[in-house]
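Field reference: sequence -> structure
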Amino acid sequence: LDPTYGRVSRFGIIAFGSSLDQVGPIGRDVEDVATILDGIGSHDPRDSTSDPAPRPDMRHYLGRDVAGKKIGVPREYFVEGMEDGVRARIDEALRHLESLGCEVDTDLSLPMTEHALAVYYLIAPSEASSNLARYDGVKYGLSERGGSMWENMEQTREQGFGDEVKRRIMLGVYALSAGYYDQFYLKAQRVRTLITNEFRDAFTRYDALVTPTTPGVAFPVGDKLDDPYAMYLNDIYTLPSAVAGLPALSLPCGLSEGLPVGLQIIGDVGAEGTILQIGHAFEGALGEANTLAPL
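Structure field:
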C-alpha cells in the first residue's frame, strides 16, 4: 500500500524526493496491510509533512459490502506494450468486481497521466540531488579517506552511491541548473498540478480507480540495468498516483507465464479505507489459489 502523502511519518528515513516520499506497508494479504497501517499511521509532530487529521481504524472497512461502489478504469493505462497475459488477468479482475456489485466504467479518460513518468523523473532526481548532497563523508555516514578533504568527499560519494543513484543525482543537478530550471523543473511542477486536478475531478464521479500495476510481469534481477529507460517504463502505471500524492493498493489478481499480475486500486486523498475495502472483497472473491506463483 502506498498511502496518501503525509499519512505515515517519514521521520528517521533518508530523504530522496521530499514531495514524493511515502512510507507504506507490504503484507501477505489486505488484512495484514490494514493492520500495519493502523500501527504506523499516527500523526508525528517530528515530521512537518505528517497530516494531523484523525485516522479511522482501517480494519473496520474490511468485510464491508462493496456493492454500488463506482469504479473507473482509465483507458490511458491500457496502452501498446502491455503484455497479453496482464491484460487478460485485469479483464478477469474487472469481471470479479462486477460480480461483487461494483459499477465498473471503462470509458474514463485521464489524458494528463501519460506525462507522469516524465514529471516524476524530473522532480524526484531534482529533489534527490539536493537531499543527498549532505552525504559528503564529513558530517555523518560513510566516510572514505582521501589525500585531501575534496578527495575524501569524492571517494565517499563514488563508493557510497550506486550507479542508479548517481544517474539520478546528475539528472537532478542538470534540471535545476541555471537556464534549465524553468524549462524542466518548473514545467514539471505545473504539469504535476494538472495531473492532480485531473484525478480530483475523477473522484467526484468514482469511489476508486482500477488499473494494472505494471505493463508486464517481473523480469529477471539485473535484466534491465543497461537500459534505464526500459526499467523506468515499468513504473508507468504507479507514478501518476504517486505524483498526485494519492493512496494506491497493489494486490495479485492472477498469474501470467507462472508469475503474479498486479491489480492497482487508486483512491482519493485520505481514502485508504475505501481501497482496502474493495481490495479485501476482491481478494476474497478471487481466492489465494489463483494468485500465488508456485515455488
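Note: The mean pLDDT is 91.
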